[in-house]
Automatic annotation (TrEMBL):
Source organism of the structure: Aquilegia coerulea
Chief localisation class: endoplasmic reticulum
GO molecular function annotation: ATP binding; ATP-dependent protein folding chaperone
GO BP terms, alphabetized: endoplasmic reticulum unfolded protein response
UniProt KW Cytoplasm keyword: no
UniProt GO cellular component terms: endoplasmic reticulum chaperone complex; endoplasmic reticulum lumen
Subcellular locations according to the entry: Endoplasmic reticulum lumen
Protein name as annotated: Uncharacterized protein
Alphabetized InterPro entries for the sequence: ATPase_NBD, Heat_shock_70_CS, HSP70_C_sf, HSP70_peptide-bd_sf, Hsp_70_fam
Matches recorded under PROSITE patterns: HSP70_3
Length: 467
């Protein structure tokens, strides 16, 4: 559990043997079997419960209808101290909070117990178990089949959250072999080092990961079959497929739409399961060009998809496959009459010599085989060309198709008007930053002038007193 999200992953550890520099070594590896998450639940939710609690308490202390929530600067101060208070409650049963000049030169001081904090976040504890329950239900594993439970993320240090996990998993203690705050950063660095060719690890670690989302494909065009135009699964969830190819028999231009497999499991900030659309053109022209030829099979359109290591799916290229049957003239070969009659006499002579004993019979077989082999080579060398003949051969052509991409949702490029507005905002922020820096510089110069003038005045007074 991190600041803003909660993840539960099922990982399978194993080992395999490989050869390095001629030696057999054992390499450890892990494979991600299942992942479930809640993108709206994290340590920040607990902090906001405390912020609301202390904001109400401060409003009651001040009175006169004052609401500290209306003042962003005051709320920023309160949130900063609340985070520190939450960390103290993870190690102590009571914590205090102190904010100087929170609003209108009024200081705020209060205390809270761990019991009260757990009461304020009562519904969050059950929500934190939902990803774990989903992982177990979709994987089909039982609790006694899990070897270790590792906690990752700063929010997992909350004692009540650990107690809930212990009760649900039926364990007295949870595994804490890695640093909860540094685990994500170190894991990302290790994964990058494994992928890099310029970094060499002292000990190799295998990683098998898959996409967190499944992808479906839908085709739209004139003359498509019913089974082609309906939405179909392209890449299953958590299936490691660096590339995927799909073929269809069609001779007209069409459109390709890509969807997330499950509309209920979408990335944060995405509201629609459709995220990409491609217009594939050039197939109609290719069909008209090769329609007069002798086609051995209908024209096929081949789509090449690629799934990157980051789980990004894209259509890399598309081409039309055309198979043509043609009659091709090839030379004919025939044997000469003289070479065909030279084989028998050699075998007959060897047979007459070897009819007296069994040893001679053995010599017959060996010599006969040798003679046959040598004569067959001579036959091939003395073959003559007697003309040409026609044979039916197939030829395959691949015609590149044009692909135009159209993105949806967050992937859409900014329009000219939106881009101009963004530039104006950036320019306004740059001007404010320049004014702030200029104001700070002038204040520093004024302060330096005041100190220098005061020092000169003091020196003159001191010299006058001495005189």
């Amino acid at each position: 559990m991190g600041t803003s999200s909660t993840y539960a992953a099922l990982v399978y550890f194993s080992a395999y043997n490989t050869k390095e520099y001629g030696k057999t070594v054992s390499v450890n590896q892990f494979q991600v079997k299942e992942v479930r998450w809640n993108p709206k639940l994290g340590g920040q939710n607990m902090e906001m419960r405390l912020v609301e609690y202390f904001a109400d308490e401060f409003n009651n202390q001040v009175g006169n209808g004052v609401d500290v929530r209306k003042f962003p600067k005051a709320m920023a101060k309160l949130k900063k101290q609340v985070k520190r208070t939450k960390e103290i409650l993870s190690a102590n049963t009571m914590a205090s909070i102190s904010v100087e000049s929170l609003y209108d030169d009024r200081d705020f001081r209060s205390t809270i117990t761990r019991e009260k904090f757990e009461e304020l976040c009562g519904d969050l504890w059950e929500q934190s178990l939902i990803p774990v329950k989903k992982v177990l239900s979709h994987s089909g594993l039982k609790l006694d089949e899990i070897y270790a439970i590792e906690l990752i993320g700063g929010a997992t240090r909350v004692p009540k959250l650990q107690a809930k996990l212990q009760d649900f998993l039926g364990r007295k203690e949870l595994d804490k072999h890695i640093d909860a705050d540094e685990a994500i950063v170190l894991g990302a660095a290790l994964h990058a080092a494994n992928l890099s060719d310029g970094i060499k690890l002292n000990r190799k670690l295998g990683m098998i990961d898959g996409s967190s989302y499944g992808f479906s494909i839908e085709l739209d065009g004139v003359g498509l079959a019913n089974n082609e135009s309906t939405k179909q699964l392209l890449i299953p969830r958590l299936k490691k497929l660096p590339s995927k190819m799909r073929s269809l028999k069609h001779d007209k231009d069409f459109e390709v739409s890509l969807y997330y497999e499950n509309g209920d499991m979408l990335p944060p900030g995405i509201s629609s399961d459709k995220f990409l659309q491609f217009a594939v053109s050039g197939l109609t022209d290719a069909s008209e060009k090769y329609s007069s030829r002798n086609l051995s099979s209908p024209i096929k359109a081949t789509l090449h998809f690629s799934l990157s290591r980051s789980g990004i799916l894209s259509l890399t290229k598309a081409d039309a496959v055309v198979e043509i049957s043609e009659w091709v003239e090839v030379p004919k070969k025939n044997l000469t009459v003289g070479n065909s009659t030279d084989v028998t006499p050699n075998v007959t002579v060897e047979a007459a010599r070897g009819s007296s004993s069994e040893a001679g019979a053995e010599n017959l077989n060996v010599d006969g085989d040798t003679s046959s082999t040598s004569n067959s080579n001579e036959v091939e060398q003395n073959a003559v060309d007697t003309g040409t003949e026609k044979k039916l051969k197939k030829r395959t052509f691949r015609v590149p198709l044009k692909v135009v991409e159209k993105a949806f949702g967050l992937g859409v490029s900014l329009s000219g008007e939106s881009l101009s507005e963004a530039k104006l905002r950036l320019n306004a922020l740059d001007k404010k930053d320049a004014e702030r820096r200029r104001t700070a510089e002038l204040k520093n110069n004024l302060e330096s002038y005041i100190y220098a003038t005061r020092e000169k005045v003091c020196q003159k007074k001191q010299a006058y007193i001495v005189k």
